[in-house]
Amino acid sequence: MTIAHPTAQRFDSYGFLDPDAANVKRALRQLAGGVCVIAAGRGEDRTGATVTSATGLSMDPPTMIVNINRNSSTWPVIARYGHFAVNVLGEDQQSIADRFAGVGGVKGPARYEGAAWTTLVSGAPVLTTALSAVDCEVEEVIERHSHAIIIGRAVAVLAGDGRSLIYQNGSYGRLV
Question: What was the pLDDT predicted at 15?
Fold first, then answer.
């Protein structure tokens, strides 16, 4: 692999860092991302995770891609049910993002308390107040290193209007 040497002044004072996990994480924290809750399961066997790694993979056919740590409580539920919903959070939904990120130690179905949820085609939990949601059936899973790369075929969509919650460098934010 060839690494291009930076020419912009902004990198002169930093120098090059070893590409270990801490430095890669440090670099990627500078990338702002939309905050989503990946939800899966049914009834008392449901859980989910807050992510910034959900994105559209293709529009022909409509598919999503999400990355989930295989040691998380969310991965086995997605694998068991073969579905997930990508719930795009609005700028006023930080408390939901925190719950699904495990802030306060909340786990499993308790993460769903205090918000209205429904199901669409796949049966995955969909937040009724999400900015938008894409309901997916798992099409393919690629297990690499610590994560599962999950490709889901869109089977239903809810789309609204508003401003999305974003996350950058350890803090939530919003577009103004």
Answer: 67
Token pair belonging to 45: 């066997």
3-state secondary structure 86-97: EEECECCCHHHH
pTM given for the model: 0.88
Q: Which residues contact 79 (CB under 8 A, 6 or more apart)?
A: 138, 141, 148
If we measure between CA atoms, which residue out of 44, 63, 64 comes closest to residue 125? 44
Q: Give the model's pLDDT for residue 17.
A: 79
Q: List C-alpha distances in Å: 46 to 17, 76, 148.
A: 40, 10, 18
Distance CA 173, CA 60 (A): 32
Higher pLDDT, 18 or 167: 167
CA distance 14 to 8: 12
User: Rounded mean pLDDT of 18-44?
Assistant: 90
- Residue type (1 letter), 154: A
* CB contact at 8 A, 48 and 37: yes
